[in-house]
Amino acid sequence: MKILLRCLLIVVLIYFLPLGYAVTAHYADSDQATDWRTARRDSAGLAPDPAFTDEAVIQVYAARAFRWRGAFGVHTWIAAKPRGASSYTRFEVVGFGVGRGGRAVRVQAGGIADGYWYGAEPSLLRELRGGEEVDALIARLHQAAAEYPYDDQYRVWPGPNSNTFIAYLGRAVPELRLDLPPTAIGKDYLPQGAVFARPPSGQGMQASLGGLLGFIVSPQEGVELNLLGLSAGIDFHPPAIKLPGVGRVGVAEQAQH
């Protein structure tokens, strides 16, 4: 009985106490948008201007989800620009309209690469720049997006959702070395009922039961434990702890590759 109580205490301290703090902080934030029609969607000034940037660019972003969802997690997307292109293409999954037969996958040419997500400021998670090698990765992103198996499905929890899609692209293009934040709920939902796979970074090992229970061991992500879709763990390079709802706490990662 004592062992069970200790285990429950550990779960509360690691998973539900940080989550409670995140929910409280979210609803105490008076600056968050309440109306999606008027919420800010303009550029955050993080993406290089394609008018002055000839090289190929891939960027990965995360921003708090809209309304109550933002208390728990983030929405992630990828923006890419081939060499010489005058605009970016956004790769993301959006649930709006899927229930009425619409497509979940959005590959939008000319989209705002670093736009606020319904009022939430984005963070740059990863960036690659270069020539032919980055152009080749962009072509593979297009191919992987076309092969995503859940284009007709969307489920906030435990997936498949927007983070499931970006994790899928990361596995398909491991050169991105994606280390998605613990707040990217749905990243641990493995496609087509798989139990074992590579993590989104493409390095190490991941096990997951329907996105509800599992783990990641990776030189990129560190060690993560997934409980009911909530991720907690330890990152080693650079050092940090990962907490549900709160995110990564420690030395900031460098977005540039």
Descriptive key words:
21% helix; alpha+beta; 257 residues; 3 helices
What does it look like?
This protein is of the alpha+beta class. It has one domain. It contains three helices and twelve strands. It has a seven-stranded antiparallel sheet. A five-stranded antiparallel sheet has the order 4-3-2-1-5. β2 and β3 form a beta hairpin.
What letter string, H or E per element, gives the SSE order? HEEEEEHHEEEEEEE
What fraction of the residues are assigned to beta strands by DSSP? Answer: 25-35%
Give the overall silhouette: globular
- What is the rounded distance between the termini? 49 Å
Overall radius of gyration? 18 Å
* Tally of contiguous helical segments: 3
Largest sheet: 7 strands, antiparallel
Main sheet strand line-up: 6-7-8-9-10-11-12
Q: By helix and strand content, what is the structural category?
A: alpha+beta
Measured as a percent range, the helix fraction is: 10-25%
Q: What number of structural domains do the residues give? A: 1
Low-confidence regions: none
The chain-level mean pLDDT equals: 92
Q: Quick one: how many beta strands?
A: 12
